[in-house]
Amino acid sequence: MYGGFWYYLKNAFNHKDNSLYKLLAINLLVFLVFLVLRVFLTISGEGALYQQLLSYFMMPAEVSRIITQPWSIFTYMFMHEGIFHILFNMLFLYWFGLLVQEYLGSRKLANLYILGGLAGAVLYVIMYNVAPYFIEQRDAALMLGASAGVYAIVVGAATLTPDTTFHLLLLGPVKIKYIAIFYVVIAFANSTGANAGGELAHLGGAAIGYLYITMLRKGTDLGTPVQAVGRFFENVFAGRPNVKVTYRKKNPPYKSEPLRETDTKTSKKEGTTQEEIDKILDKIADKGYDSLSKEEKRKLFEYSNK
Known about the structure:
Layout: H1 5-10, H2 19-43, H3 47-55, E1 59-60, H4 63-68, H5 72-75, H6 83-104, H7 106-130, H8 132-135, E2 142-143, H9 147-160, E3 165-168, E4 172-175, H10 176-189, H11 196-217, H12 224-238, H13 261-270, H14 274-287, H15 294-304
Antiparallel strand pairs: 1-2, 3-4
Helix pairs in contact: 2-3, 2-6, 6-7, 6-9, 7-9, 7-11, 9-10, 9-11
Subcellular location: Membrane
Protein name: Putative membrane protein
Organism: Echinicola vietnamensis (strain DSM 17526 / LMG 23754 / KMM 6221)
């Protein structure tokens, strides 16, 4: 159906402000590529080559190896091997990601995912190089999966709207704060088990999810560097420079409602700061121009014509 889940997934890269479906699409595409490689290389007797190739994109615990493949701190969070591994990660990413995107917008959803993945990797490396229990396993330890980023989104959504209710099969209505608490407790309980590294990453992602929303409420967006990098690559791939609004003098791209005389006087008295304009531009990036109030449209129009 036009406008449904599959439409947005297939057209994930044709729409702006669509981080949720972009994240889903990237994870699925990477999974399919490595699935095909695994099948063909294994059948041809090159299973060892596949494992070696896979390891170059997984997160190592050994610091010296991280130095030789620094990209892995980013690539590992988009990789899965098992069907159920990617299935459950993508389901939780979709369910809780919809909530985060609805309340905070597309860019902040991406912030949460990336920051969660980075925090998970950092905690994983620290524990494997500090805790005696993990040091013995450090040299061979490798990690992959979106779980840390997904945990950040789950806990972030639960911190943002704790009383939102999901209707779960067999259990019925459950508030998402209880779902988040349950999964954090499970990750903590399994942090010395067979998948200890992954569980540590879950805890790192969960911690950053809570911290991100808490700091955002206080006016600090921890994801600002992530957004800056994202915008840089958007401009590179779009083939256009990063233009600031202060240079849009002759042909402002925004239409504004006619100003009343009283509005003009108020504007001249109060003025509009660059900080206000930056916030308005962030709002446009997250939710689109139509989400602006009349006052915000007026400020943007006047500032672009200074």
